[in-house]
Design a protein that fits this description.
Distance between the termini: 76 Å
Radius of gyration: 24 Å
Largest sheet: none
Strand content: under 5%
Helix content: 40-55%
Number of strands: 0
Structural class: mainly alpha
Length: 65
Amino acid sequence: MENMRKIAKVCRKVSIKNQPSDFAYWQSRSYEERLACLEEIRQEYHGWKNITEQRLQRVYTIVKR
């Protein structure tokens, strides 16, 4: 356990005007990595869709008095 790596916490404050663009970040990644991230997002989205469909159906009955 002595050889465990520790992750350094790094925090930077950046002005909103000097913020790097997301487009530049994704263009710096390989196409395999971009596709893998896209697939992960797609699977997560479809997982959310299935959760919302698993509800009990409501039945309404109109009764006139």
